[in-house]
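Assemble and predict.
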Amino acid sequence: MGNMKIKAKAKGDVVGVKVLAKHDMLTYDQAKAKGKEANFITHIAAKVGDKIVYDVSTSQFWSKNPQFKFKFKKDGFKDGDKIAVTWTDLSGKTVTEDKKIKGL
Amino acid sequence: MNRRKFLGLGVMAVAAMPVALSAFSSIDFRATKPDAWKAKTVEDAIKALYGDIKPEESGVTVKAPKVASNGGAVPVTVKADIDAKSVAVFQNMNPESAVAVFNVPEGGIVDYFLKIKLKATDENGGNGVITAIAEGKDGKFYKGTVALQVAKGGCEG
């Protein structure tokens, strides 16, 4: 825990999700300057149950501790459902955290 | 068509069903389109990702501040009015162009917000441009752009 802050809330027919992921997002240039290995999130996916609701391949140019938001239709989801957000970085590390969706 | 053949076709159709009904699956565009992430210009990145396309200049909107004071975290919003299969975001300020490629799930809404790092634009009229391309389910491509200035770069740090 502690790698992500997730907020998910249904409003009307739509669920809105806000995520703050904790990651240095060290670009190749920054890594070179610091004498470190570049490492950044390369893929983010979010699921409710086994249904994918967000799927993005990412580059080194997402900001440090990237913040992102997305929306999806709430059809088929019910009270108590959780959203699980997973990121994978260049080093192969994978982190998943989940949060109950409010207002379903 | 004789009866035997007809039944055979039926079995094949049933066998093909699970493929047609299979759930939406994740795509790693870094693995499937590695050259798109190495491209140094927006044109080359688009070509590596989608091929030689002629996108319509509509259907997609990109929002960013006109002047970003901090290039370390420039807020960007991408929206599409069309039914999209995928959406890609590029910029022309950093060493490579690709920022993100979204694989749009069933029920997904193209209204994406993200914060990105951008190098400072130079004062001699060098404009920064963020470009978004949406691949429509209709097989067409759509394009939206936004111009911006970045006062202090976010990639040097």
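The two ends of chain A are 24 Å apart (CA to CA).
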